[in-house]
Amino acid sequence: MSTGYDHTAGPLTTESGAPIASNNQSEAAGPGGPLLIQDQVLLEKLAHFNRERIPERVVHARGAGAYGTFTVTADVTAYTRAAFLSEVGKETETFLRFSTVAGSLGSADAVRDPRGWALKFYTEEGNYDLVGNNTPVFFIRDAIKFPDFIHTQKRDPYTGSQEADNVWDFWSHSPESVHQVTWLFGDRGIPASYRHMDGFGSHTYQWVNEAGEQFWVKYHFKTDQGIRNLTQAEADALAGTDPDSHQRDLREAIERGEYPSWTVQVQIMPAAEAATYRFNPFDLTKVWPNADYPRITIGKLELNRNPENVFAEVEQSAFSPAHFVPGIGPSPDKMLQGRLFAYGDAHRYRVGVNADQLPVNRPHATVARNGNRDGLGYDGRHGRSRNYEPNSFGGPAETGRPLWAPVQVAGATGAWETPRHAEDDDFVQAGNLYRLMSADEQDRLIANLAGFLAKVGRDDIVERAVGNFAKADEQYGKRLAAAVAELRGR
Ligand code: HEM
């Protein structure tokens, strides 16, 4: 990401390029001061320093990123017309930012929290962003609940700390969270590093092929390094002694030439099967069991280049679930639909209206051509080209071909509950996950959950929370109730 200039040769200069005589003593009215307003070197330096920070991400503030290569290993042209997936062996440049969710920019890496998995494919038809997590499901199924949920994960307005009461109050009032909470407090809740975890697109997305046939798709990225996790005790120790553990591990592995990689798989559902599938396929709190829709391996993702400048390329990186390319589109998932708005809006606030044209964010394999111009930080890249369409001067024109296929909708507008399919309830998959765990993992799950739940002050919140786990599996609920009662001494 070099600018072409050598920033080390020649004298120190001001921002406007004039040589600096003194960078260690301010200009003063006599040896003892006071300082002079004519010392523009001092004033410019202090003023620039005051403006070094941009707002941190409201969630996923803490993260690390790397560039890489995605390679297609299977023919998927029957399912999508996306150009970057059009040929076995085809390679696409990528940038992947990993993150934790709740902590602020300076927080520790080794914590129990989902890990963000934000992947940008720089394709020849525009950038395709897949903004997922290391978990296949999520806590809630409607975007309108997200700000309330995050408020309970972040610092309480009065105490200034995360409060167990708030976290469990929200979760216990949102029984659809039991599946993700079971996942999070199980062994995979604290990955040993970003390299040793899987990634997921999590939502269901639409793929459409050249003939216009539609499919619903879920993405899985299986780590080739193997899954490795930390216990709560290991993580507590590491977070205290080495807060940057995950970030450094990623950078150093790439520096050593040990490029981490993931096997990319998809589950594919023909569009016509969605209406009668046993689970609502657009409910983000549910997985599609592999037995129903087996995973198909379609590619390899390798990370092989560190960013040169963390602020420019990681802090200013901007991913949006609304960044689609021809052949890929959204599903009606009510979480995804909200996210289609939220990210671009966040970028315009956090990085500015020209965020998408910064080097890390702009298309690398094509260029952005439209009439959008100006605004803070605009670099004039369009030169004298006209800024409207249609025009008679050979400007770019619309294609008339939507990126994705139309989706049938039905019913009146309204604040509806998400429709339930034959086997849907909030608890069935959480119970299945609990019963899938080994006895040892169940023990650790109960201990991890009880340790946090026992910090809750109010009995009604504890009871409501335990009641939800009991609905997932009676034994799960009973064991948790006993463990919490023991820790709370009542
Ligand atoms: C409706 C629910 C959600 C809303 C409103 C929301 C909103 C946001 C916002 C505003 C950001 C900060 C973006 C920025 O400043 O660049 C963010 C970051 C992120 N979100 Fe969400 N989010 C939601 C759900 C999810 C879900 C379900 C996932 C994963 C499946 C997810 C994954 C991420 C990731 C990975 C990032 C960090 C992106 C990066 O590395 O820059 N979010 N989210």
Automatic annotation (TrEMBL):
It catalyses: 2 H2O2 = O2 + 2 H2O. Heme binds at Y343. One of its GO terms (cellular component) is cytoplasm. InterPro entries: Catalase, Catalase_3, Catalase_AS, Catalase_clade1/3, Catalase_core, Catalase_haem_BS, Catalase_immune_responsive, Catalase_sf. The active site is at H60, N133. SUPFAM superfamilies: Heme-dependent catalase-like. Residues 13-397 form the Catalase core domain. SMART domains: Catalase. Keywords: Heme, Hydrogen peroxide, Iron, Metal-binding, Oxidoreductase, Peroxidase. GO terms for molecular function: catalase activity; heme binding; metal ion binding. Its EC number is 1.11.1.6. Residues 1-27 have a biased composition (Polar residues). The keyword Metal-binding applies. PROSITE patterns: CATALASE_1 (PS00437), CATALASE_2 (PS00438), CATALASE_3 (PS51402). The keyword Nucleus does not apply. GO terms for biological process: hydrogen peroxide catabolic process; response to hydrogen peroxide. Residues 1-33 are annotated as: Disordered. Its cofactor is heme. Belongs to the catalase family. PANTHER family: CATALASE (PTHR11465:SF9). This is Catalase. It comes from Glycomyces terrestris.
